Amino acid sequence: MATDTRLLAHLTDADSSPSGSWSHYALHPLPAERPPTGRTRAEFACPECGTTVSYSISSAAGARRRSRAWRAVGFLMIALVPLLFLPAYLASGFDRVGFAVLGALMLIVPGLGQAWARDHARDADGLRLLHPNSRHSLRRAGATSDYDMVIEG
Asked: Domain locations in the chain?
């Protein structure tokens, strides 16, 4: 068995209403051994519906490299944004509106970039569905439900 924390998730039930939406998943471990090097492909019949799900799994070293690379992208975003926007601010003649826009961009863009990279690094465990669809996905152990509530104010 793969030692990954993500499992095959089969969407079993979903509904939505004006107040929000919810989804429930049945989780199943994918039967695969990590290769010593490179990546291997395998197929698995979903126990819920019988559909063949194709996936690939990378070596542990490859998964670690991918995770480090995504983290580096996040830190690069933090470093590059001030370098890219500072010349634009200086060229604006120190306009207050320009300063406010620049300040907002310098806070928002690296934050979004870091969150995006962190999300990819977390999922860079080397386990990947080759043809994801609306019924099958990869989820963390215990993540059997999603709830999105609409808060009216």
From this structure: 6-148
